[in-house]
Each structure stands twice: as structure tokens, then as C-alpha cells.
């Protein structure tokens, strides 16, 4: 049976999206029509499929002024966490998949990343700066338990003393606490734990397979207690749905041991906007109009504004108020102090290029 289309927008157990929107790069469009003959119903739950892809390169580079890093590694394509708002969903269309249910059920695990990274770090002229894991999908999504790609990368980066940053909403990061502690002792790692809401019921549909709010706070507490520099990223702030929690989220993170904090406004590029609206219609129909109205107020009347300097924060009265609330709360809670930000700075001078097969003096 074909993947569900917008004509079959029922929720799937443990999944964020309700349907598979059209892949914008496909030359043809298929539309499902109910002619009364097909008797089977779409399954209430969908299994996760994982296929492997040999990596041709490891590092992805960017020049965005909105990002605090210029290089990243993504061990996986797609993300089983299934966050309905995920800005990375449209990238799945590049691999001939839909940004909807395909994004969270048809995953790609990249093989040979350590080998490719070793080659890239040994290139003449390579300048060491922190590598972000991952940037496009979460490196501690559920399939990491079996794949262990993230742990392999961390072990390799520790071996060659290369600094690394992580952003995650997965509690599995504590599996690698031994490596993170060793990296932290050498000022080679900092972690940001993403928080969206303290409402566990809201989280179950908004971010169905991500760790619970309580589990993420335990992660912050465990990392802080182990001496690993940790902060929180309140992201995304969803106007009319989660914005009222901003101060409480920051207070909970600070109480757990977070030293720094950041925030980002909801982003709805390409297919994410209709997916998110369908989710609102299903789970919060009474708030849907208000939420989208506030989003558009922050996005110059549109669902999304991709301009640098605007896409992460938005603009207008509501966006400015969020920024003021964030700054006020951080001052009150002692977040983002000069001392905390100094502790987050990583050492780029200890890096030593790894040996590769064929090195003359290896």
C-alpha cells in the first residue's frame, strides 16, 4: 500500500507527522483517491527502516552567520525522534523520500565516517575549529543504540584531541559519559540539551520518540555533575503553544546545572509548514488559528522567513518580547555569565592530525 497522503491524515502511534507530503523534487505527483474498492486501512503504527550509505565525505561546511559553528558531521539522515516542527525535514527530499512520515521512518545510517574524517583532518591546511554533532538530525536518536556511529566519532575525536560540540534531546548521551568526561578534562567538548516544553503530554505528540522533559533535565544534571560543560537550548519556542513556558524552562535547566542558554523561534521551511498545521488541526484545533497568526506576525506575514539574522529569532513586537523575556530570565537565573561562557570555550591548540595508512613516519 502506498505511503499515506494528506487525504489520510490520521495520527500514527509514536510518529509526529500524519502523512507524507509530495517530494518537491519528484517529476510526478501521485494522488490517492478512495473509490470504495480498497478495503484495507493504513496501519496505526509504522516500523522504522534503516539502510546504510557509504560516506563520500564526513564534514559538512556552512558559512551561515546564524550558526556558532562552520562544520558539522551528520551520522544519520532522517530522525526517529519525529519532532513535527523539525526544520531538517525538507532535506529528506534530497534522498528521494518524503519530509513527512518518511523522515522519521525511513532512515539512512552513514558508514565509513571515521575513515573519511581521518582523511579530511589530515589534509594540508586544515584549521582546527569545533565540529558540531550533528546539526541536521539528532545523533542520539533511538537507532544510535545499535549503530553506535556517534560513540565511534567521539572516541576518534578524543584520540586526536579535536574539539566537538553537541546538541541533543536524547537521554542516550549518558551512555557516552566516559568519553565526554575525558573530552571535558581537556576542554574539548560542550553540550547543549534541547528543551521545548515541561508538559509530558504535549511532548508525546510534539516530539514522540525524544526523551521526556524529566529525562532531559536528568541529562543536564548528570553532565554538570561529571564536569561536562552543559547548557540548554530552548528550541523551538512555539508562539501560542509553548512560549508561556520560557521562564520555567530556563529555571528548570539552571536548577539542573545548566550554565548557559539560548533560544530559537519556531521555523517552518518548505513542507514543514503544512505538516505542522496538520498536526495542530489534529492535536490542538482550538489553538491552531492563534498559533499560526502569531507565527506569521513574527515572520513578516508569512509562514517562514529564511533571511539570515531573522530565521532564528523572527521580528516584530512578539519576537522582541520573547527576546526581552529570555534576557531578563537569564540575568535573574545567573545564566550566560562571562565566567560561564568562558568555561564553554574549547581548546583548538591541542589538536594532532591522526596517522593515515601510508604515512611515511607512522
**What is the end-to-end distance?**
55 Å
- Using only CA atoms, what is the Rg? 21 Å
| Content of β-strand | 5-15%
Taking pLDDT < 50 over at least 5 consecutive residues as the criterion, the unreliable ranges are 1-7, 358-362
The amount of helix comes to 25-40%
SSE order: EEEEHEHEHHEHEHHEHEHHHH
Oligomer classification? single chain
What's the CATH class label? Answer: Alpha Beta
Count every beta strand, where a strand is a DSSP E run of 2 or more residues.
10
Mean pLDDT over the full residue set: 92
The assigned structural class equals alpha/beta
**CATH level-3 fold name:** pyruvate-formate lyase- activating enzyme
Describe this structure in words.
This protein has a 7-stranded mixed sheet with strand order 2-3-6-7-8-9-10. The protein has helices at residues 101-105, 113-121, 144-147, 149-159, 177-185, 200-206, 213-225, 246-256, 272-283, 288-298, 317-333, 338-343; strands spanning 49-54, 60-61, 71-73, 76-77, 106-111, 131-133, 164-168, 189-195, 230-237, 260-265. The chain is globular and about 55 Å long. It has a single domain (49-343), classed as pyruvate-formate lyase- activating enzyme (Alpha-Beta Horseshoe). The chain has 12 helices and 10 strands. With 362 residues, it is an alpha/beta fold. Residues 1-7 and 358-362 have low confidence and may be disordered.
Amino acid at each position: 500500500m502506498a505511503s499515506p497522503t494528506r487525504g489520510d491524515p490520521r495520527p500514527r502511534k509514536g510518529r509526529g507527522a500524519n502523512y507524507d507530503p509530495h517530494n518537491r523534487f519528484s517529476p510526478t505527483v501521485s494522488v490517492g483517491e478512495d473509490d470504495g474498492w480498497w478495503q484495507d486501512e493504513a496501519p496505526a503504527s509504522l516500523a522504522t527502516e534503516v539502510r546504510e550509505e557509504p560516506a563520500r565525505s564526513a564534514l559538512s561546511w556552512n558559512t551561515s552567520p546564524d550558526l556558532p559553528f562552520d562544520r558539522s558531521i551528520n551520522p544519520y539522515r532522517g530522525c526517529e525522534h519525529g519532532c513535527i516542527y523539525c526544520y531538517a525535514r525538507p532535506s529528506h527530499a534530497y534522498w528521494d523520500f518524503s519530509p513527512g512520515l518518511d523522515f522519521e521512518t525511513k532512515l539512512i545510517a552513514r558508514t565509513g565516517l571515521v575513515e573519511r574524517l581521518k582523511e579530511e583532518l589530515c589534509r594540508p591546511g586544515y584549521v582546527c575549529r569545533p565540529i558540531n554533532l550533528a546539526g541536521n538530525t539528532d545523533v542520539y536518536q533511538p537507532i544510535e543504540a545499535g549503530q553506535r556511529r556517534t560513540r565511534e566519532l567521539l572516541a576518534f575525536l578524543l584520540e586526536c584531541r579535536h574539539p566537538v560540540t553537541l546538541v541533543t534531546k536524547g537521554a542516550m548521551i549518558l551512555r557516552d559519559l566516559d568519553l565526554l568526561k575525558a573530552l571535558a578534562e581537556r576542554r574539548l567538548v560542550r553540550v547543549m540539551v534541547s528543551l521545548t516544553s515541561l508538559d509530558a503530554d504535549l511532548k508525546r505528540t510534539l516530539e514522540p520518540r525524544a526523551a521526556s522533559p524529566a529525562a532531559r533535565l536528568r541529562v543536564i544534571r548528570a553532565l554538570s555533575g561529571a564536569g561536562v560543560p552543559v547548557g540548554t537550548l530552548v528550541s523551538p519556542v512555539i508562539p501560542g503553544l509553548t512560549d508561556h513556558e520560557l521562564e520555567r524552562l530556563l529555571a528548570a535547566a539552571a536548577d539542573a546545572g545548566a550554565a548557559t542558554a539560548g533560544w530559537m523561534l519556531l521555523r517552518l521551511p518548505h513542507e514543514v509548514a503544512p505538516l505542522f498545521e496538520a498536526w495542530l488541526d489534529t492535536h490542538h484545533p482550538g489553538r491552531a488559528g492563534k498559533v499560526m497568526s502569531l507565527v506569521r506576525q513574527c515572520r513578516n506575514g508569512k509562514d517562514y522567513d529564511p533571511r539570515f539574522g531573522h530565521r532564528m529569532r523572527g521580528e516584530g513586537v512578539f519576537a522582541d518580547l520573547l527576546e526581552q523575556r529570555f534576557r531578563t530570565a537569564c540575568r535573574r537565573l545567573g545564566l550566560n555569565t562571562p565566567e560561564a561562557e568562558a568555561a564553554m570555550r574549547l581548546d583548538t591548540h591541542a589538536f594532532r592530525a591522526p596517522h593515515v595508512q601510508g604515512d611515511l613516519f607512522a
